[in-house]
Write a structure and sequence with these properties.
By secondary structure, this protein is an alpha/beta fold. The protein is built from 16 helices and 19 strands. The chain has a 7-stranded mixed beta sheet with strand order 7-6-15-16-17-14-18. A 5-stranded parallel beta sheet has the order 9-2-1-13-19, covered by helices on one side. It starts with a strand and ends in an 8-residue tail after the last helix. Bound molecules: flavin-adenine dinucleotide (FAD).
Length: about 500
Amino acid sequence: MAHKRIVVVGAGVGGLVAALDLAVRGMDVTVLERAATPGGKLREVHPGGTAIDAGPTVFTMRWVFEEIFADAGASLADHLTLLPAEILARHAWSGTERLDLFADAARSEAAIGAFAGAAEARGFRAFCARAKNIWLTLEGPFIRSGKPTPVSLVRSAGLTGLADMWRISPFATLASALEKHFADPRLRQLFGRYSTYAGSSPFLAPATLMLIAHVEQDGVWLVEGGMHRIARTLADLLQARGGVIRYGTHVAQIETANGRASGVRLAEGERIAADAVVFNGDSGALAAGLLGGAVRGGASVVPPATRSLSAVTWAMQARASGFPLLRHSVFFSRDYPAEFSDLFRACRLPAAPTVYVCAQDRGAADAPAPDGPERLLCLVNAPPHGDSRPLTEAEIAACETASFQLLARCGLTLERQATVTTTPENFEKLFPATGGALYGQAVHGSMASFRRPGARSKIPGLYLAGGSTHPGAGVPMAALSGRLAAASILQDSASTAMSRRTATPGGISMR
Ligand SMILES: Cc1cc2nc3c(=O)[nH]c(=O)nc-3n(C[C@H](O)[C@H](O)[C@H](O)COP(=O)(O)OP(=O)(O)OC[C@H]3O[C@@H](n4cnc5c(N)ncnc54)[C@H](O)[C@@H]3O)c2cc1C
């Protein structure tokens, strides 16, 4: 194998994983990251000087990282301590309506029975079986596959699999599918919320997103030291395997020669040549021309109307009392259709938002509250228009008031000491060309999942990795996209090397 020089633009999960896979296979890899730390969305902020995870907080699909570490000759368990969450999340609608979901499905079924009756518990059992079936049907031919199309999906299913494909309800919305399992609107809301993990509305997303419920059921893990540690650990392992990371390095242009990506030019003017470039920013940034005119055609334009959700987050140190917070707690609005209509139709913050609270000093089982202030991340969904229609201070303040009033109605009182607020406008600045959308394009309609670009861009030698590309957003999915980018480079360079060797008698290995 030729010793290829690879430049990776961005040290998000997808970029780090692509870089690691390539470094392990002997490639000469340099990651260029504009921020001062690795991780991208997997970021920390420091209200009152204390580090708080301000990006992803729910860690699933542990096996993805076990495979990545094993392929790099390391063991995930030696690098990260992951504790299984016994209670997946606590959900509240008021001071008296509370429901926990457990890692053990039988315990969840019993809890749902006590909360909403025996018929709903039976509905949950059927829902779990259906979610698992969707996962099993899509894992191989879609999630792990390079660039699936509806045709490739049907082909891979074969005659016997066609019935399975039909059963996964690709044409129904998640909300309508949930009506078949649950009569209680609170349960429809709870399981519909899984679409927001892909930044989408349950009223527009396909029923296939039920598979996210199965993924959670399969294991939610608490990362000792915080989620940001995943990024640091990947960065350390990459460097230990010979990769180079340069922080504070903004790539202004991806350059081409003879129609092929040939390197990058940094904002300060330095040029770095490469045999292949991996772009880990949002694919829409290429089409928006943020990486220069030469690679503008590398990916399709992402129309703002197709963007996924953004968020407003408050990372804070606060004294919490009155409600038994767990690591993951969700406080629901009363009117989910109105909430998503605000977000996607009116393009404004919801008048009555659902609020997710991650209590980072708590575990996933009931335990006494920390003595003194604790680290909390509160999140509400927000429209992804931080570039064209930034939210005003008054809009954010109104949303904050509504959010904290809901928490108070559910019994949670917060005495805040220090807060860092992040808005769609802030996310747009951190992740350019997104408008603050955090999960690539929304998965609205049965074809949306096929619209994401694959690992190979439209320009030879330029590859894509990250949550805006196939197989989609979320830490493990972005990691898988990094693996797909690395695999594509290895495959393409092997076939180039082979054709060059055939064309050059004497078998000179080309670099
Ligand atoms: C608030 C929030 C909550 C979330 N919750 C969850 C959750 O609970 N569970 C979950 O699994 N996922 C969650 N996600 C989604 C998950 O974080 C992302 O899908 C994933 O981390 C994206 O990784 P990525 O590879 O796309 O890279 P990104 O995180 O998008 O990073 C891209 C990197 O590229 C860099 N970059 C871009 N352009 C340039 C340039 N020109 N030059 C140099 N560097 C550049 C950026 O600075 C950035 O560091 C959440 C995200 C957010 C923000």
